[in-house]
Design a protein that fits this description.
Elements lengths: L1 H16 L8 E9 L3 H6 L1 H11 L4 E5 L4 H7 L4 E4 L7 H17 L1 E8 L6 H9 L1 E6 L1 E2 L17 E2 L9 H14 L5 H4 L13 E4 L12 H14 L4 E5 L7 H9 L5 E4 L4 H10 L2 E5 L2 H8 L4 E4 L17 E4 L18 H4 L3 H18 L1
Parallel strand pairs: 1-2, 1-4, 2-3, 4-5, 6-7, 8-9, 8-11, 9-10, 11-12, 12-13
């Protein structure tokens, strides 16, 4: 009954928004809907690049989130962007107010194909697709019981989300399937594997540590992180250490842990945006990070790095690699796939990755990159 009422409420709301006077109609061959966080946006770069190559940058519209906007502008400077909130957690006021602000623009979109590259469904995404005039919609059919939705994509024959991936992660496998349905031909994983159009940068020889993740539960504890760095420095004492944190984040927990571990030669960097973060990574010798946007950016840059992966969504967004220079570490547990609803006293899938394991992986990546230089 509740699902039926929710369905009716959304339909009535969308019907009301369709009465909004639309702006001058804009026609596109392709519209890509990718409202997501920065790390997920990085994962979509290969698929977006392949689709734009096929349909043309002047005939494509990208619908993206504010946090991902600088990345897409950097990679696709001649493609038109429509920037919208990545999520609407509640019907009121989030969804209604977002649609009030964007209904006229969405109603003006006329597109031959609308491709959704966020595979976890939401009625927010369904509503955006229904507000546009799309001749066909391409998307994955979510087969996991995580999301409760009442709407569907219009004019869409969805492709089941993959249950397993032989190479890389499930999201890249899903991108491959969706893009193949659009192009009408098989698509290889290498065709959708992300890469960044990197500028030519001089490497400053540093270990760049990006300890923050999207949620605190996915972060490696500062004392253990400091211990891992200390062990690595015993083998490579000449390398400089640079910590990279979001502008609003305090460095105190890591600063204290490093001081207690006797590591004092550390510089701190708070990049103001994606471009500064990419530049810092391009200049680094190697990167250490949890599963986060920096880990995905470093991998897309084919930067030597070690990345710490928990079990909440293991295999869905990571691991993936551009080359053997990227190493993902994890501690397997029976409670994997908990969606970060952790039943332990702490996230053992992360905290039980031993500092010596991280230090050894860093040393291996460092030595391999030295030999390839």
């Amino acid at each position: 009954m509740m699902r039926w009422l929710r369905h009716l409420l959304y339909l009535l709301t969308l019907a009301a928004f369709r009465l909004t006077p639309r702006r001058k109609r804009r026609g596109y061959r392709l519209t890509i809907l990718k409202l997501d966080r920065l790390g997920d946006a990085v994962l979509s770069l290969g698929a977006v690049r392949l689709l734009i190559k096929e349909f043309g940058d002047q005939a494509t519209l990208l619908i993206v989130s504010p946090v991902a906007e600088p990345l897409f502008r950097r990679e696709f400077p001649t493609v038109e962007l429509l920037v919208m909130p990545p999520f609407c957690a509640r019907f009121w006021p989030d969804f209604v107010l977002t649609m009030v602000r964007h209904a006229a623009v969405l109603r003006a979109i006329s597109t031959d194909r609308l491709v959704c590259l966020r595979h976890q469904p939401s009625d927010y995404l369904h509503a955006i697709a229904r507000m546009t005039e799309a001749k066909s919609v391409h998307a994955c059919k979510w087969v996991k019981p995580w999301e409760r939705v009442c709407l569907t994509f219009p004019r869409c024959r969805p492709i089941p989300y993959p249950e397993r991936a032989t190479d890389d992660c499930l999201e890249l496998a899903a991108h491959r399937l969706v893009v193949a349905s659009v192009l009408g031909r098989p698509v290889g994983l290498d065709e959708v594997r992300p890469f960044l159009a990197a500028d030519s940068l001089d490497t400053n020889g540093s270990l760049l540590v990006c300890p923050a993740a999207g949620s605190e539960i996915r972060q490696y504890p500062p004392p253990q992180l400091a211990a891992a760095i200390g062990l690595f420095l015993q083998s490579v004492p000449s390398i400089s250490v640079r910590f990279c944190l979001p502008p609003e984040m305090s460095r105190q927990p890591w600063e204290q842990a490093l001081r207690e571990a006797g590591i004092v030669r550390v510089t701190w960097h708070h990049p103001e945006g994606v471009n500064e973060l990419i530049q810092a990574m391009g200049e680094a010798r190697l990167v250490l990070a949890p599963d986060s946007a920096p880990a995905h950016l470093a991998t897309a840059l084919n930067k030597p790095g070690v990345f710490l992966l928990g079990g909440g969504h293991f295999g869905m967004f990571a691991p993936w690699r551009r080359s053997p220079q990227q190493v993902w570490l994890n501690h397997q547990l029976d409670c994997y796939q908990c969606r970060w609803n952790c039943i332990q006293s702490e996230p053992f899938c992360i905290t039980h990755i031993q500092p010596v394991t991280i230090a050894d992986a860093l040393l291996g990546v460092y030595q391999a990159s030295t030999q390839s230089c």
